[in-house]
Batch of 2 targets.
Target 1
Amino acid sequence: MSKTPSEAQRRALGEFLKAHRARLSPESAGLAVTGRRRTPGLRREEVAHLAGLSATWYCWMEQGRDISVSPHALTRLAEALQLTPAERAYLFDLTGKRDPALHHDEAGGSQAAPPALQAALTATGCPAYLMDHRWNLMAWNPAAERLFAGWLDRPEDHNLLRFVFLHPVARRLIVDWDERARRVLAEFRADYSRHLEEGPMTALVEELLAASAVFAVGWREQQVYGRDGGERLFRGAGDEVHRYEQVSLLPAARPDLKLVMLTGPAARAL
């Protein structure tokens, strides 16, 4: 999915490209230097060549013309200009395109959780876990493993949707399971809309439609919610209810992931 950039965005894109073209030397780009150069940095034709674009097309981008560039062409351009991750994200934001680099390992499972995020989980005392866009849990801390005993402490599938709708532990653990399950589905749909053409995402939905009547009914309702957090209730081994406030964060370096924390537990008897 993409959005048509505004005139202001196209102008900003042109200025951004010019500035980053000027900061690169031919030597740093692996180009041979021949003759004197009147301006610093790379020429437009050189950037176009490095990115595999037509010189005219690249010139139009710098001029802020209303043209469309594919995500893969933008990827090559980001590499040619040697953009940092933040600069690359800015490039894609200005063009209204989705960065293909955020679709990690679409044919199979998720990549390993970044070490810095794993360290953040370890340092967090409350239950916390890291989740990808297909709602696979990539990592979690001991507090989360204790809370989700019977699921996270076992070597099995760790997809949150399969847990909520298919795992017998979920119906006992999650207070007001029917209501919460519908809410989880509506939150997932927001992520699903951004990955409609991804095979594993579609396969997951089809699996749950066939295996869970509650999921099938909720899916037809077409409700969409943001993962805004709020109170979450879980039933303990002694039937006490543990209250948490859920907080979901998007790591700046990996906005395709969610860091979910359940803060402030307090128990009371049912």
Target 2
Amino acid sequence: MRSRDLEQNATQGGTALQAGGDIVITSTGLTYTEIKEIALDVFRANFYQLSGIAKQTASDRAEEITEAFLSKLQVENPEGFQQANDPSFQYALLTVQKEHARIGDKDLGDLLVDLLVDRSKHECRDILQIVLDESLNTAPKLTDNQLAVLAITFLFRYTQHNGIGNHQLLGEYFDKFVIPFAQKIVKNAACYQHLEFTGCGAIGAMEVKLETILGKTYHGQFLKGFDPKEVEEKKLSVGLDSRFFIPCLNDKAKVQVRANSHESLDRLLADQGIDAEDSGKIKALFDVGKMGDDEIKEKCIELRPYMSQAFDVWSDSNMKHFTLTSVGIAIAHANVKRLVGEFADLAIWIN
């Protein structure tokens, strides 16, 4: 074709491009509407053709989930819009669109959106991106009960809330993080077998009681305390310093070490520059009067009666043997964040 055979028109403010061959346009500033259209074009070009009402339903659901994702992305990670033309990211988005078009469950859709937004924060092919890609394929294979099991297992086995300094705050922690899932966790073996089959976790031989986990993670909440004279008898140079000692949470006539766990106590002693001799004596006092497992369970149920459900299911199911894979952690993390709100970055657990 001769150059004089080419014609072009451009509206005011537009840019006309002309060439004798193919033109490749790389956009670095796509608008929200343009990105949405790209996303829907990907879906239309790749999703198998349905007929009648099913076709329209699938199309509506795909548009719904795309709009939900882009809206959340705009708020949480607007830089993620730059991945609109990345094949790997388009494939991840297509996975979300297809699964929501197929299933149409709002809760699952919200979970997939959260996972995809997290995925948008990782442009390089690192472990987090790989795990999140796999999580997008795995989450639709799980029921609400199985998602709840992942969340409870993740919260108790893999996280610690450093802001819990008394029983009131411990109860509020249970209210915020346990209530959304406690009534959904189940005992049946098939639940855990399926979670293992989908690569979310493993049923091991070792048994760990929930009360044992809580007693370790929130050690300071379950102390019977000791007589203040014990501090004097140990000849601590810092004495009964309020930086390290408080009235016992479970017996006001006694005192206890001011820490929630051995790890937090180590940090406190290091930050305050306490010498090795005094540190050793304070650590020894931290283990004085620790409640037994039965007492820990009783205290938690006293604080929040609904905790009996969590203890019951944990002790009478494979939950006490269950550990999570990276995929299980990623799905649990997204589910907790979806129902509870802001949560620590996933990279803390997967890096």
